[in-house]
């Protein structure tokens, strides 16, 4: 599967089978949650300057980082676009 600019995706953790979910409770927490096909689990991916932005369909907010990027830093929803690098898995090219 090739990621396409402007398409809407459900981002799923293949190990836990949970979806990337923007909390409907506080409007900024990013969680792994049971898949339910709600707009808060749908993300529009856009390629901007060779990086990808994730815009939530339900709120229009973007996937960002709560603080300095690094291992263990929580993800959060932010009002400005944030660029991400996406690479295919080395073993299974259908997984990123």
Automatic annotation (TrEMBL):
Gene3D superfamilies, per the entry: 2.80.10.50
Highest taxon in the source lineage: Eukaryota
UniProt cross-references to SUPFAM superfamilies, sorted A to Z: Ricin B-like lectins
InterPro entries referenced in this protein's UniProt entry, alphabetically: Ricin_B-like_lectins (IPR035992), Ricin_B_lectin (IPR000772)
Pfam families, alphabetized: RicinB_lectin_2
Span of domain Ricin B lectin: 6-76
Protein name: Ricin B lectin domain-containing protein
Organism listed in the record: Sphagnurus paluster
